[in-house]
Design goal:
Largest sheet: 8 strands, parallel, barrel
Shape: globular
Radius of gyration: 18 Å
Helix content: 25-40%
Number of strands: 8
Structural class: alpha/beta
Order of helices and strands: EHEHEHEHEHEHHEHE
């Protein structure tokens, strides 16, 4: 068990960032991976030119890598923002403009999971008003995902690194998942269970796995402390992934960790090469 029985994918927005975006799929493939995920790659625009979308699709296709997860537009990420969909005004408008673009790109490459980051609290804005706006936008996103046969992911982040983000526990994210599914009747909103973020919040990870695996659509990992590769911190990630498997999780496990000072390709020694290709 441990790492031998998982379907891993590499997050190309946190690994291989020493390379230009269009070179990262090939670098992941050279390291032995066949599946990748991405934050929204164009942080400056929710609606890039079709030529840019086509170039990314070609890079993924040429490398033989399957895109298995994509974030909707989330503002400046990496950076100060943690999503756009609950932020009134221009950012909410940008999120809405992105919905069909992101879903269309996902459909073009066969990606079946779209992650919608909630967004930070805004000074002077009633949190209830932000939550109302968030639900409106998440309903639109869930419907767009459903049209392409995809799920909508809702992610909990961690309070120390994202103090203005309201979903900083598994129960808080699950509550939003339930709200979206109740509003749409589609049932395609799922929890993005990130073991690093939840551990930073001090949550009981075995309990979270036991309670919420059935509603989990995607898993991400990094060790803690440090957000490095497995084995660089104190988390028993192999044991936690075993628990997920035993609880019935059969989805992707995204490697969303920092390589540190070395090239990304050297950060995978914890995972034997034959286990990197998605089975």
């Amino acid at each position: 068990m441990g790492y031998t029985d998982q379907r891993f994918n590499v997050n190309l927005s946190i690994l291989f960032t020493e390379l230009p975006l269009l070179e990262r799929p090939a670098a992941a493939a050279a390291a032995g991976f066949t599946a990748v995920e991405l934050w929204w790659p164009w942080i400056e625009t929710p609606t890039p030119d079709q030529s840019e979308l086509d170039a990314l699709k070609k890079a993924l296709d040429d490398a033989g890598t399957q895109l298995v997860g994509l974030n909707f537009y989330a503002g400046q990420l990496p950076g100060p923002d943690r999503g756009a969909l609950s932020v009134p005004g221009e950012e909410s408008d940008r999120f809405r403009a992105n919905i069909d673009v992101a879903a269309g790109f996902a459909a073009s490459v066969g990606c079946k999971a779209l992650n919608a980051l909630y967004g930070n609290r805004v000074d002077g804005v009633d949190p209830a008003a932000q939550d109302e706006l968030a639900l409106e936008n998440l309903v639109l996103a869930a419907r767009a995902a459903d049209r392409i046969g995809a799920i909508l992911l809702i992610e909990a982040l961690n309070k120390p690194e994202s103090p203005r983000y309201p979903l900083v526990s598994a129960p808080a994210a699950i509550e939003v998942v339930d709200r979206v599914n109740a509003a749409t009747g589609l049932g395609n909103a799922k929890f993005l269970l990130d073991l690093y973020h939840l551990s930073m919040n001090g949550e009981d990870l075995p309990e979270v796995i036991e309670r919420y695996t059935a509603r989990t659509g995607h898993v991400q990992i990094a060790d803690n402390p440090g957000r490095g590769a497995p084995g660089t911190g104190d988390l028993d990630l192999a044991g936690l992934l075993d628990r997920l498997k035993k609880a019935g999780y059969e989805g992707w496990v995204g490697l969303e960790y920092k390589a540190g000072d070395r090239p990304s390709a050297e950060s995978f020694e914890w995972l034997p090469r034959p286990q990197r290709a998605a089975n």
